[in-house]
Design brief:
The complex is a heterodimer of chains A (about 600) and B (about 290). The longest helix of chain A is centred in the N-terminal third of the chain and has 17 residues, at about 155-170. Chain A is elongated, with a radius of gyration of 30 Å. With about 600 residues, chain A is of the alpha+beta class. Chain B has about 290 residues and is an alpha/beta fold. Helix content of chain B is about 35%, strand content about 10%. Chain B has helices at about 5-20, 35-45, 65-75, 85-90, 105-120, 205-215, 255-260, 275-280, 285-290, and strands spanning about 25-30, 55, 80-85, 125-130, 135, 145-150, 165-170, 195-200, 230-235, 245. In chain B, the strands form two sheets. An eight-stranded mixed sheet of chain B has the order 5-4-3-2-1-6-8-7. In chain B, a hairpin with a 4-residue loop joins strand 4 and strand 5. Chain B is globular and about 50 Å long. The chains are: A alpha+beta (about 600), B alpha/beta (about 290). At the A-B interface, helix 2, strand 2, helix 4, strand 7 and strand 8 of A face helix 1 and helix 2 of B.
């Protein structure tokens, strides 16, 4: 068709309850001739049967429940078209109870229409919805002042609402020049210019829609492909190992060198894969792609593929985030939740809540929990490294959702980078991984040959609790079972590997000592071994450092003695009364965690 | 990027999310144009493979050509094909064509109940054995926790409220009033034991999009959608006794697309030829709450 764009647009319509969103949509559908015949007839018939006057809003109330409650309970999709293009209207409910549905509807939109009742003026959800639109990343917003017929089409009323709301928008960094006075009920300025408001020389709602731009995938930004999966479908002799994911931003080419974050592993694009046609050596943002690599490095769901010739994402176990919360259960400190960013999925706890903002008036308070519909600035501590970008650099990898009890319960954006205790060591790890020479023997085949999972067992506790004896006995017991095991006594490290950082028998730089210990353990784990290490008064910080170096979840901690004197949460505790059974207890832990097993 | 390409890429993303997050996953294939497009998209997503079983609910009243087409593609594309059926209701003739049930009661028995019990594994599943070239009772009775369906939001009112990943509770019920939020391409992939999730990759597609895509990808569809000389064709497919063809001389994909673009059909609901819709005052909501597709 000539003159029509080949791209549909999604428009969210938001605002306070009863400010007339549904009436405006109904009017747009009717006046652009977009209704299926059966629909209008059915609604009119329904109104006649129930002796209610016909309203344009009823057109949208396709569901029975909704009609009986009289409020839009969910964001619905409605299709209509103008001469220029096809639109999908996402009708978001204005009732506060249904804010999560508003978020659902608006988050997918290219642009939003925010409706304010001229008679009632700006209400709490007029502002709350505006605030959420800015967090959701909706850049194009048109403000519609509805029900102008109720205020005699007064220019002063319109101007005063426009001035106030414009000020609010600038406080939350939204710039818009589009304010339209309309009456959904009477049809003023919806499709045709209003004869009742000759003083208004701006565009009608439909003209504004046609003037907006569809949001396009950003090919000019650095490459980001969150890996969805690695496919190896062997049927019919297919031996491709395809890495699949959607290109969120940037461009990928055959023979680009990629780095997978947060691990820092590196390889080169061998082919870009397609099914049925579309052969090519390049693929760009917006496409769900698949590619193969020249070297078979270990890539998994959650990694983000990036190009080494471009900006890399941030990596951290600690992030600052602006969060909006949608769950009835408040977001609390000291509880574990899950963050989902791209295809990464990582448990976290809230370290601190800096401030809680009331989105309906921008006031803020300090609270120790984030209640439903609050917006809050928080610091989060993650269980593993997260790869992300700050929101101003990349919207797609700068935002996340939070899962609580199986449900998506909130969302957040990352406004800036904050320091993280392990960042100094992480840089070294990334360089190491970059240069690492990958063996042709995989982790899995070593594990299969040795009937064990490469791991570290830390035995900690107070002085005199029997750590070293337990470590020796554990080593002997595992060895007698045929396991590859090594007890790494601290003296073995201190005088050789640590020679340059040790003075008069004392290690000057304890963190560097731990990093080196971690590197040795990493080498031995790469060889498939179980390593036993004893350490006095081990702290959770120290474990985290070793985890960062070894990039392993297979680190297990045992605490010996009656009192835990540090902040660690050991996998098992062995009080002094049980110390004679300590080896059996640790063996039980290793079986339970799947570290040692037998195939026979 | 043109609109069809965007729809395709977004749907592929959803299919891959479903595959990576659900251990026990299946796709419903009604043999109609929408779920056939969905099947095609799965082959795109997984580079020629369809790595999960396809489920067809055979009411016993389907137009015979639909079953022939199903089994032909099953062989050609090496599909892992399973069908389920309410054998008892058919034996006892508790159906509308037998005069013993209303349209809705018949749909409930032959489709909703058959679907629910096939998904849960309570009733036998008939799985195509490619080596033996026939259907056999499947020994796997594990319930499916992820169910992909080709629902489109422009089809009919209640479908416009679906999520891409829509939870169903232990009783298979759809709680429309309290659906989880869904934004930024993050979906409900965590679920409590006993519940399952319906996955809808085609939610943003319209009827015209479907036909334009069938045209651009050259996807084989069952010939009932085309006029073969009678001046009539099916616009929506279902059971033979309850599905009426429309007046149309469109005899191939190009002509169907052209016909849709004239706007000739835009004022008639797509499912106007489906009898069960007319009995249910709230669109298909009653049936859908119960698990109907």
């Amino acid at each position: 068709m000539t003159g029509r764009e080949n791209r549909d647009m999604k428009i969210a319509i938001v605002g306070h309850v009863d400010h007339g969103k549904s009436t405006i949509i109904g009017r747009m559908l009717a006046d652009t001739d977009s209704l299926p015949e059966g629909k209008l007839k059915r609604v009119r018939e329904n109104c006649r049967r129930t002796s209610r006057p016909f309203e344009y809003a009823f057109l949208l109330d396709a569901l029975k429940d909704e009609q009986s409650q009289g409020i839009t309970i969910d964001s619905a999709r409605i299709f209509f078209s103008t001469d220029k293009r096809q639109y999908t209207i996402l009708d978001a409910p204005g009732h506060i109870e249904f804010l999560k549905n508003m978020v659902t509807g608006a988050s997918n939109a290219d642009a939003a229409l925010l409706v304010i009742d001229a008679d009632e003026g700006i209400k709490e959800n007029s502002k709350r919805h505006g605030y959420l639109l800015s967090m959701l990343g909706i850049k194009q917003i048109a403000v519609i002042i509805n029900k102008m017929d109720l205020v005699d089409y007064s220019r002063d009323v319109f101007n005063s609402i426009e001035t106030d709301y414009r000020e609010f928008l600038s406080d939350i960094n939204i710039e818009t020049d589009i304010f339209i006075p309309v009456s959904g009920l009477k049809g003023d300025n919806i499709v045709a210019p209003s004869p009742n408001m000759k003083w208004f020389d701006g565009m009608t709602v439909i003209d504004v829609l046609d003037s907006l731009d569809a949001s396009l995938p950003e090919t000019d930004k650095a490459l980001r492909i969150p890996v969805q999966d690695v496919y190896k479908f062997t049927r019919d002799g297919d031996n491709r190992r395809i890495i699949a994911g959607k290109i969120e931003t940037g461009i990928i080419n055959v023979s680009d060198t990629l780095m997978f974050m947060p691990s820092g592993k590196k390889s080169t694009v061998k082919t870009i894969e397609y099914f049925n046609g579309d052969k090519g050596k390049i693929d760009r943002a917006g496409n769900s792609t698949g590619f193969t690599l020249t070297e078979q490095i270990y890539v998994k769901r959650g990694d983000i593929a990036c190009r080494i010739d471009q900006d890399m994402p941030e990596i951290s176990r600690r992030i600052k985030a602006n969060i909006f919360w949608l769950d009835r259960e408040p977001l609390e400190m000291e509880r574990e939740y899950i963050i989902k960013l791209g295809t990464q999925k990582i448990p976290f706890t809230v370290e601190s809540i800096e401030k809680v903002i009331d989105a309906s008036d921008l006031s803020f308070t300090s609270k120790d929990r984030v209640e439903r519909h609050d917006v809050a600035e928080c610091i989060l501590t993650l269980k593993k490294e997260l790869a992300y970008d700050i929101i101003d650099n990349n919207q797609m990898t700068g935002r996340f959702v939070i899962v609580n009890n199986y449900e998506i319960s909130g969302g957040g954006i990352i406004p800036e980078v904050i320091s993280d205790r392990q960042s100094w060591v992480r840089d070294k790890v990334i360089t190491r991984n970059e240069k690492w020479i990958i063996s042709d023997i995989t982790k899995k085949s070593r594990a299969g040959r040795y009937n064990q999972k490469a791991s570290i067992v830390f035995i900690s506790g107070e002085k005199g609790s029997g750590r070293k004896l337990t470590a020796r006995n554990l080593e002997k017991m595992l060895f007698s079972q045929g396991k590859l095991v090594y007890y790494m006594g601290m003296g073995n490290v201190l005088y050789g590997v640590d020679a340059d950082i040790k003075e008069q028998g004392i290690v000057k730089d304890k963190k560097e000592h731990l990093r080196r210990l971690g590197e040795i353990a990493y080498l031995m784990m790469d060889a498939g071994m179980i390593i036993i290490i004893t350490a006095l008064d081990l702290t959770s910080d120290e474990i985290e450092l070793v985890q960062t170096v070894t990039e392993s979840d297979n680190i297990f901690t045992v605490w010996m003695g009656d009192d835990i004197t540090t902040d660690i949460e050991p996998d098992i505790r062995i009080p002094s009364a049980d110390s004679k059974d300590s080896v059996e207890k640790i063996e039980g832990l290793l079986i339970e965690k799947g570290v040692i097993f037998d195939y026979n | 990027m043109n609109h069809l390409k965007k729809l395709e890429n977004d749907s592929v993303y959803i299919l891959r999310e479903a595959y990576s997050n659900f251990k026990s996953l299946c796709m419903l294939w009604s043999i109609g144009k929408d779920s056939t497009v969905l099947l095609w998209l799965a082959r795109k997503a997984f580079f020629g493979h369809v790595p999960f079983p396809l489920i067809h609910i055979d009411t016993g009243f389907k137009i015979p050509e639909m079953i022939e087409y199903r089994d032909r593609l099953t062989r050609e594309w090496h599909l892992d094909m399973i069908y389920g059926q309410n054998k008892k209701a058919l034996q006892n003739k508790e159906t509308f064509p037998d005069g013993n049930a209303t349209h809705l009661e018949c749909c409930k028995k032959l489709k909703t109940e058959a679907l629910r019990n096939t998904l849960s594994g309570d009733w036998p599943r008939y799985r195509f054995n490619h080596a033996a070239d026939k259907y056999e009772i499947d020994s796997n009775k594990e319930p499916f926790t992820g169910v992909i369906a080709g629902v489109r939001s422009d089809e009919e009112g209640s479908r416009s409220k679906e999520r891409y990943f829509s939870p169903r509770d232990v009783n298979n019920d759809w709680n429309i009033e309290n659906q989880p939020p869904e934004f930024w391409n993050q979906f409900k992939t965590e679920f409590a034991p006993g519940t399952h999730v319906r996955i809808h990759p085609l939610l943003d597609w319209t009827e015209t999009n479907i036909w334009e895509y069938i045209q651009s990808e050259n996807i084989p569809v069952v010939s009932l959608y085309f006029d073969r000389g009678s001046g009539r064709r099916y616009r929506s497919l279902g059971c033979a006794p309850c599905t009426m063809p429309i007046d149309s001389t469109a005899s191939n994909v190009e002509e169907v697309v052209a016909e849709l673009k004239t706007g000739k059909l835009s004022r008639i609901a797509e499912r106007a030829g489906r009898e069960q819709d007319k009995e249910d005052g709230g669109g298909l909501e009653e049936l859908r709450k119960d698990g109907y597709m």
